[in-house]
From TrEMBL:
SUPFAM superfamilies cross-referenced by the UniProt entry: Class II aaRS and biotin synthetases, Nucleic acid-binding proteins
InterPro entries tied to this protein: Aa-tRNA-synt_II (IPR004364), aa-tRNA-synth_II (IPR006195), aa-tRNA-synth_II/BPL/LPL (IPR045864), Asp-tRNA_synthase_2 (IPR004523), Asp/Asn-tRNA-synth_IIb (IPR002312), NA-bd_OB-fold (IPR012340), NA-bd_OB_tRNA (IPR004365)
GO cellular component terms, A-Z: aminoacyl-tRNA synthetase multienzyme complex; cytosol
Matching NCBIfam families: PRK05159.1
Family designation: Belongs to the class-II aminoacyl-tRNA synthetase family. Type 2 subfamily.
Protein name per its UniProtKB record: Aminoacyl-transfer RNA synthetases class-II family profile domain-containing protein
Natural source organism: Candidatus Adlerbacteria bacterium RIFCSPLOWO2_01_FULL_54_21b
Top-level taxonomy: Bacteria, Candidatus Adleribacteriota
Domain of life of the native organism: Bacteria
GO biological process per UniProt: aspartyl-tRNA aminoacylation
Entry's Gene Ontology molecular function annotations: aspartate-tRNA ligase activity; ATP binding; RNA binding
Keyword terms of this UniProt record: Aminoacyl-tRNA synthetase, ATP-binding, Cytoplasm, Ligase, Nucleotide-binding, Protein biosynthesis
Length: 429
């Protein structure tokens, strides 16, 4: 018999069907055994009846066993219909149940698990409906990002993960032993490459894994995250970039189907205006996490918006490629996008003049020789351009109001863990 997906069983009422999947729930009632079976399309209740011939085999089956089940798809009596549950109007009466793989589970999936235990057992805990929903939503986010980029005529490219130099400063890049006793770095961002790609396609985007070696232990930092980056040529200034990012966020929100407060335009404040609104000194170079939270509360109250742009960060707080606002010396044409209490994106206009860029690299205490490759893009002619990057896991966490970014990360790498805890890992040096 051909396998039927559980999601298609409703088309087979009154007929026999073969289902393959996992056992999510098993309720042994002595004479009868009830199961919830699941496959990639959903779940269904099954029952092994006393005289069915399947009852002995059914008694052997446990949670997470992989099974092959033949049975009759029965319509449930009126009183037993669960309208709000998938396949709540049918039941699989089991004639035959074969074990494909046995399983030994560490704990019941429905039980309240603390984050560390959840992370320790991810090959198992990721099977929970809650986790599956989180990472399905993440898939939707990245698809929507890609869709909007294509609509706006951007070309997707694959950025390298190994880099010869670090764009964002150096201290936070992981070093890698490379050939001939040379050092390479794990890319902290595709920044240099996306700028180079502006010289190639004019509009380019990429969704790489990037790596940050800062020793952070917070609810918002990972050592490895997914970055949704784009870069575009022939802009007037950073406002053009913000418009593309805002449009992208709107499509992402729409595709997720979540209720997010978004007025006709996202509010925009200069950093100093934001600081004044919060009663913070304008000498501060950045917003602290608690100020980001307070500013987002302000934006929701005053503008009915879960998003707020903050622009004009001090030049000395931004990387060397940042464009200074001629009309506001010392401050940059750069921005952060804050969403529900946290920075989710950074971006801005970049310097496109070769000589200015070389001089900035020196001012930032870096060696232009190390950036020779990148600088060639400017030598051979670059238009005014800019772009931005959004952290996928931060956005996912805030969209779902998950308190810790690790819940929105498949296999999070942090200060204490790569899959297993470093302190308990036998392979640790
Ligand atoms: P920035 O360093 O601000 O900018 O990073 C952009 C966005 O990436 C996310 N992010 C992180 N997410 C998880 N863990 C981390 N350790 C982490 N660090 C950053 C945040 C952040 O807003 N090249 C510039 C972008 C640009 O100008 O285009 C950059 O990398 O969501």
């Amino acid at each position: 018999m051909e396998r039927t997906l559980i999601g298609d069983l409703h088309t087979k009422v009154g007929q026999r069907a073969l289902v393959m999947g996992w056992v999510s729930v098993r309720r042994d009632q002595g004479k009868m055994v009830f199961f919830d079976f699941r496959d990639r399309s959903g779940s269904v209740q099954g029952v092994a009846l006393p005289l069915s011939g399947s009852i002995d085999a059914a008694k052997e089956v446990r949670n997470e066993y992989v099974v092959s089940v033949e049975g009759t798809v029965n319509a449930r009596p009126e009183g037993n219909i669960k309208a709000d549950v998938q396949n709540g109007d049918i039941e699989l009466e089991i004639q035959k149940i074969d074990i494909i793989s046995v399983a030994e589970i560490p704990f019941e999936l429905s039980s309240e698990t603390n984050l560390d235990t959840y992370l320790d057992h991810q090959p198992y805990t990721l099977r929970s409906e809650r986790s599956k929903d989180i990472f399905k939503l993440q898939e939707t986010i990245i698809q929507a990002f890609r869709e909007e980029m294509k609509v706006q005529d951007f070309t997707e490219f694959q950025a390298p993960a190994l880099a010869g130099a670090d764009a964002e400063g150096g201290a936070m890049a992981f070093k890698v032993d490379y050939y001939y006793d040379k050092m390479a770095y794990l890319a902290t961002s595709p920044q240099l490459y996306k700028q180079i790609m502006v010289g190639v396609y004019e509009r380019a985007f990429t969704t790489p894994k990037v790596f940050r070696g800062e020793k952070h232990s917070t609810t918002r930092h990972l050592s490895e995250y997914s970055s949704m980056d784009f870069e575009m040529g022939f802009i007037k200034d950073h406002v053009d970039v913000m418009a593309v990012l805002e449009k992208t966020m709107r499509l992402i929100v729409k595709k997720t189907g979540l209720e997010i407060a978004m007025p006709a335009m996202f509010p925009v404040l200069k950093l100093r205006e934001a600081q004044k609104a919060l009663g913070v000194s304008t000498d501060e170079l950045d917003l602290d996490p608690e100020h980001e939270r307070a500013l987002c509360e302000w934006a929701l109250k005053e503008h009915g918006s879960d998003f707020i742009f903050v622009t004009h960060y001090p030049m000395n707080k931004r990387p060397f490629y940042t464009y200074e606002d001629e009309a506001d010396p010392g401050y940059s044409k750069s921005f952060d996008l804050l969403f529900r209490g946290i920075e989710i994106s950074t971006g801005g206009q970049r310097i496109h003049d070769y000589n200015k860029l070389v001089s900035n690299i020196k001012t930032w205490g870096l060696d232009p020789e190390k950036f020779k490759f990148y600088l060639e893009a400017f030598k051979v002619g670059m238009p005014p351009h800019g772009g931005s990057a959004t952290g996928l896991e931060r956005l996912t966490a805030r969209l779902l109001n998950l308190p810790n970014i690790k819940e929105a990360t498949l296999f999070p790498r942090d200060l204490n863990r790569i899959d297993t805890l470093l302190s308990t890992d036998k392979n640790t040096k």
